[in-house]
Amino acid sequence: MCYYLYALNFIFLHSLQIDSYMIATNKQKAVLKVTADIRGKILDGSFPAGMQLSQEDIASTFDVSRTPVREALQILAGEELIEIPSSGRATVTVISPSDVLEKFELRALIETKLIGLAIPVMSANNIAEARVLAENLQSCTAEQWTDFNYQFHEALYRPANRPTMQKFVKELYYRHYSRLDTLVKSRRNVPRSLREHHELISLCEEGDIEGAYYKLETHIMMGGYALVEQLKALLNKDNL
User: Fold this and answer.
1) 83 pairs with which residues across the strands?
2) Which pLDDT tens digit goes with each residue over 62-105?
3) Closest-CA residue to 150 (of 213, 186, 189, 197)
4) CB under 8 Å to 34, separation ≥6 — which residues?
């Protein structure tokens, strides 16, 4: 009799654990789905800058409760795609030229530090890898450029062995490209970028830390200034 009661109790508790797991799994799936959908609409322009996002409308669209919607909005706020005020609705973040420029400035500060740390310990294999990645950029598509370009820069910095700094650089890189992808593609100066990549490789191979530092700083900031000016022109046009 005791064994029978023990077995029933075990089955009951086990079923509760399964139910709890299923609820948690379904909630996680809902959060991921809502997050991905809103992120996609922001990045493709379907949800323009300044648009208000209603938790009730989103929950109704996805047929979920407001809990996964709130969690999804918190994730997107962490990605700087939306702003959540202390009161009122969340809104799609307005792209600020000054914010974009600051991200380029941060990239330049960190990446020049990384290249300075990397050059003294670069091997022939590191240089060879960077050359292959630079060659890949010559034949890649516009859609592949962003990833291939990051891979090239990452290869130059990897010998520095600063994973935290590199992770931060990656976040900055993809964050300022994600919302400006169309503008970046239309205004990218490919010949200049390719030329400067090869110049960077030569400076690294020569062990010229100072030369590589200034070449990389110019490489990053020239792209940043050009993008910011185009963004200002676009915003001014929209305000006419």
Assistant:
1) 91
2) 888 888 899 999 988 887 888 998 877 899 888 888 988 999 99
3) 197
4) 58, 62, 64, 68, 69, 72
Q: Does domain 2-92 have CATH number 1.10.10.10?
A: yes
How is the chain split into domains, by residue range?
2-92, 97-239
The amino acid sitting at 230 is Q
- State the Cα–Cα distance between residues 43 and 30, nearest whole angstrom: 20
Question: Under CATH, which number does the domain 97-239 receive?
Answer: 1.20.120.530
Contacts 24+ apart (CB under 8 A), 46-49: 47/92, 48/92, 49/92, 49/93, 49/94, 49/95
**C-alpha separations of 75 from 166, 175, 181 in Å:** 22, 14, 21
Give the whole-angstrom CA distance, residue 35 versus residue 31: 6
pLDDT tens-digit readout, 175-223:
766 767 666 666 678 899 999 999 999 999 999 999 999 999 999 999 8
User: Residue 16 has which token pair?
Assistant: 């509760």
**Structure tokens, 93:** 């973040």
Instruction: Indicate yes or no: pTM above 0.85.
Output: no
Long-range contact set of residues 76-81: C-beta below 8 Å, sequence gap at least 24 = 76/35, 76/38, 76/39, 76/42, 79/39, 79/175, 80/175, 81/38, 81/39, 81/42, 81/43, 81/179
CB contact at 8 A, 185 and 144: no
Confidence of residue 22 (pLDDT cuts 50, 70, 90): very low
